[in-house]
Amino acid sequence: MKNSVLAALLLILVVAGCTKDEEECVSKPETSGKKVEVVLEQFQDSLVNIKSKAALVSLFTRQPLLRDYIFRRTEYPSDSVFLDELYARFNNPHLDTLLLETRRVFGDVSGLKAEFEEAFTNIKYYYPDFTPPKIQTVISGLDTDMLVTDSLIIVSLDFYLGRGAKYRPKNVYNYILRKYDPDDILPSSMLIYGISDRFNKTDMKDKTVLADMIAYGKSFYFAKHMLPCTPDSVLIWYTPEEVKGSRANEDLIWARFIESNVLFATSHVVKKDYLGERPVTIQVGEKCPGRIGQWVGWRIVNKYMESHPDITLPQLMNTANAQHLFKESHYKPGKQ
């Protein structure tokens, strides 16, 4: 009976009124006079203007990451098949349409460059030894969205044209398409940095759902502080209503986690249910957004940092012990 009542209550998630909106701007670091300069290379025009296979070979020889990760050379049986496919793609009239759409949305990409410079300036504030990566922009024919490494970020601009674009990524569910608006490029790249072992230290021996929740939570906390005024909904790819509903029903969500013994489970099935990409977390309720475990992890990390104002962001990110973080957060929604 208890579970039935809880499930019924959770059906109102998102629909119910809420008492707290999305998190507003977090504290922005004082970086005046310390702006990081970014090198940005554009390949979208040069790719469309490829006139021979020899020119394509020359480009890919100079740009192996572009070749192997954005255009996925290893998935083709031979170089000749790969070159034939890519040459035909770059000479397809539809790619001209993508290029025009890209210019319409991103212009000369100076705005995108400025956004990366601001984010990297914030990273360097927290991590003085940080060296910003080079940025490259391309149109891939909706092949691959983004590559992020320590030294290079490649962005397929055609993936991020957003609602109303003539062409959108193919065979992608609508709830995933939320990730591919123009405003999602910076959050996506910062989240990838935030989850990487370069910044986010984790205990590889801890296979629990809680460990994954905390790792995700730290990555969201990291991204939020590199992009201080980015709405929570943009960072986690929820609608504003889903964020509000989750905040309003946070105690009920947490009760489901406890009753279902989710935190210390190690099953891949349980991880997929609570952390994986899906439209809803049906195990919690019909209106509960997917990846709710990631959101709860973020809430735990936020509570930990509120409870420990002396802890710096780098110290948080270097804390590998998820259970310690959870215990010291004193996270108990509805009783705070």
TrEMBL record:
This is Gliding motility-associated lipoprotein GldB. It holds the Pfam family GldB_lipo. InterPro entries: GldB-like.
